């Protein structure tokens, strides 16, 4: 089941509020606790609340702090985008949404309003947010002033654009002429001929009519009388410049009278007509020109038992009338009548039972890198671990350390001379305070002699004497690995300045492999645009035999499970199924059989080609009965040459984030970095190492 739903639009004034209010009522009828979230709100004055948020949380009495219902204002987002920090925007939105997701059964997420220019950026942001939250989308668009062809074209374009990135649950066309509803629904169903629900909502006049309160705000008007009736809806408006006897015939229900402030005859006549049973009820009176009636007239109005709102503005009569015609109706918290109308409109025209069922049964296949990284961070924070970084002089290591300290996700030990590390921090202007980490130099450590003795006892059967043990412990890799062995650290990350052999040799000598594990292998987490795949082995074993390949597959499947990825294992080769012949493909076929015999419940397919493993269309055409083909999440390469080149090709050509390599099979986690790694790579690898340590 989805934990949320995203309501998006492609244009301003779509009537999105009707859908949001109706959905909230529907969801509250299906589940006990429903949250509300707006990732990006309009800029608001200090001390004011976003109108959408205020309306929803106050009307439905949602127990949620206002500041937790949004992540950014529009200006804040644009500022971060201009600084090249778009990733920070998504990370913060994910973090705030996840907090609500943990608290509520379901969260209704409302997208932006398209109330400004640069709609293409706004469209991209909404798709990016819904994709990274893993939510199905309801797209709302309006038909006001559009031909039927334009509505259908807009709906299809919106559907196809969003469908490339996210799951579209429903298209809702709003503000449609009643006589066109049936035909439009049929045309939309023909054009969007898949499982996307099509809903057409007719134009409701009362929802399109602004209130006096909205007109007062738009015109910066002064309210003279009738403050308690500012929610009156303006169904139409007319200018009172003719003689009263002629103007009275022009009045209609809900009319807003616009006249100069010195036209006492029109003012009093309109008020008297409102009180009369023989004339329509007006909604209010606008006095123009900054003119006010004489004191005697004001006193007369004040003494009436019931007075519609009378407001005063500065502009001329006809310019004010023009401005009033531009006022767009909004739904706000105090206007309970419009809220009730919105909800009933939604319920009358939307199949709520079907929509609720689709939402409840919805499951997204999208798993973005940002989602994965957020989950990694949260997993590491649940049980804080201590990670040692032997390469304390490297700029990248120090920058990663500063970021790790800032997030407080792990405790860090840097190996090196404190003064030299401090010098590097100042040289590279790194925001790291060494008081926030543990700094140790091997020969100055209080544990140095104990580490030497321990290593001597562990390796003397291999001809290591005490002097040799001392020389070895002076090496940063041996010292860091011994910290783990002795329980003074939980894991180690190295390799930015050292070879893989230099990093792994101590671990293989005295950390050793887990019981039942015969081979240490590696995986990369390949964070592609819409999924995270595991590639193994791309860093350690040059040419594993069938038994080793099977063990790598089983270890990699367990890694996938440990990191929240459903393991569907593809044993890669140049051939799919039973067609291929030759020593290389036979090795993969045998490895697959061995893995199945050891782990019979594992979803595994092999031999299979890369395209058949990851592309659903190709996978189903080549291996139609396979539960892995086209959906593989764990890809096992037959040798290091293939694996290393493939992960690098995918990384470079697609821009995928490659996290790793992460080593599998050791009793305690030691992970090797590429010497071309970035500080981001080190940051991610440290977090993965900390998560590995939680399972030990």
From TrEMBL:
Record-listed E.C. numbers: 2.3.1.8
Reactions the enzyme catalyzes: acetyl-CoA + phosphate = acetyl phosphate + CoA
Subcellular location, record wording: Cytoplasm
Assigned GO CC terms: cytoplasm
Taxonomy, superkingdom: Bacteria
Molecular function via GO: phosphate acetyltransferase activity
Assembly behavior: Homohexamer.
Family label: In the N-terminal section; belongs to the CobB/CobQ family. In the C-terminal section; belongs to the phosphate acetyltransferase and butyryltransferase family.
Functional note: Involved in acetate metabolism.
Protein's recorded name: Phosphate acetyltransferase
């Amino acid at each position: 089941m989805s934990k949320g739903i995203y309501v998006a639009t492609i244009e301003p004034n779509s009537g999105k509020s009707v859908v949001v209010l109706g959905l909230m009522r529907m969801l509250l009828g299906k589940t006990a606790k429903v949250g509300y979230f707006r990732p990006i709100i309009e800029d608001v004055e200090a001390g004011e609340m976003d109108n959408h948020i205020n309306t929803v949380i106050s009307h439905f009495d949602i127990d949620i702090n206002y500041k937790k219902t949004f992540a950014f204002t529009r200006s804040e987002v644009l500022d971060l985008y201009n600084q090249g920090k778009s990733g920070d925007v998504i990370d913060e939105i994910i973090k705030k949404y996840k907090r609500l997701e943990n608290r509520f059964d379901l969260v209704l997420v409302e997208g932006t309003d398209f109330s400004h220019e640069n709609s293409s950026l706004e469209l991209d942001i909404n798709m990016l947010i819904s994709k990274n939250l893993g939510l199905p989308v309801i797209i709302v668009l309006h038909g006001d002033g559009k031909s039927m062809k334009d509505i259908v074209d807009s709906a299809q374009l919106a559907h196809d654009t969003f469908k490339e990135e996210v799951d579209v649950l429903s298209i809702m066309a709003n503000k449609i002429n009643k006589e066109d509803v049936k035909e439009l629904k049929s045309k939309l169903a023909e054009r969007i001929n898949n499982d996307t629900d099509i809903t057409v909502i007719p134009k409701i006049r009362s929802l399109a009519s602004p209130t006096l309160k909205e007109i007062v705000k738009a015109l910066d008007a002064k309210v003279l009388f009738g403050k308690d009736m500012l929610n009156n809806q303006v169904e139409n408006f007319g200018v009172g410049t003719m003689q009263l006897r002629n103007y009275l015939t022009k009045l209609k229900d809900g009319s807003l009278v616009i006249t100069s402030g010195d036209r006492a005859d029109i003012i009093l006549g309109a008020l008297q007509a409102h009180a009369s049973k023989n004339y329509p009820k007006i909604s209010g009176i606008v006095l123009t020109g900054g003119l006010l009636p004489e004191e005697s007239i004001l006193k007369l109005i004040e003494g009436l038992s019931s007075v519609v709102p009378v407001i005063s503005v500065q502009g001329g009569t006809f310019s004010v009338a023009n401005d009033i015609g531009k006022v767009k109706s909004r739904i706000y918290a105090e206007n309970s009548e419009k809220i009730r109308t919105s909800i009933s409109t939604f319920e009358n025209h939307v199949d709520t039972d079907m929509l609720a069922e689709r939402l409840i049964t919805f499951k997204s296949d999208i798993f973005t890198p940002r989602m994965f990284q957020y989950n990694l961070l949260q997993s590491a924070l649940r049980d804080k671990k201590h990670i040692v970084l032997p390469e304390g002089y490297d700029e990248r290591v120090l920058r990663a350390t500063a970021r790790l300290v800032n997030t407080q996700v792990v405790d860090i030990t840097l190996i090196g001379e404190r003064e030299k590390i401090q010098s590097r921090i100042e040289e590279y202007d790194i925001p790291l305070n060494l008081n926030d980490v543990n700094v140790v130099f091997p020969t100055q450590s209080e544990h140095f002699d104990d580490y030497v003795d321990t290593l001597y006892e562990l390796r003397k059967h291999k001809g290591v004497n005490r002097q040799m043990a001392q020389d070895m412990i002076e090496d940063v890799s041996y010292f860091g690995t011994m910290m783990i062995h002795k329980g003074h650290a939980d894991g180690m990350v190295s390799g930015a300045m050292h070879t893989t052999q230099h990093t792994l040799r101590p671990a293989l000598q005295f950390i050793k492999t887990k019981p039942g594990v015969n081979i240490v292998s590696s995986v990369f987490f390949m964070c592609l645009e819409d999924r995270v795949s595991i590639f193994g082995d791309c860093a350690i074993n040059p040419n594993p035999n069938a038994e080793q390949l099977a063990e790598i597959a089983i270890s990699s499947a367990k890694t996938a499970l440990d990191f929240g990825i459903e393991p569907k294992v593809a044993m890669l080769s140049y051939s799919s199924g039973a067609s291929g012949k030759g020593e290389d493909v036979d090795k993969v076929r045998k490895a697959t059989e061995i893995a199945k015999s050891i782990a019979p419940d594992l979803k595994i397919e092999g031999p299979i080609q890369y395209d058949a493993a990851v592309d659903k269309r190709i996978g189903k055409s080549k291996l139609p009965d396979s539960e892995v083909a086209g959906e593989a999440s764990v890809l096992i390469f037959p040798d290091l040459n293939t694996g290393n080149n493939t992960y690098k090709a995918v990384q470079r050509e697609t821009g995928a984030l490659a996290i790793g390599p992460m080593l599998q099979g050791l009793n305690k986690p030691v992970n090797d970095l590429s010497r071309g790694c970035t500080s981001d790579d080190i940051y991610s690898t440290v977090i993965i190492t900390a998560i590995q340590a939680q399972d030990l």
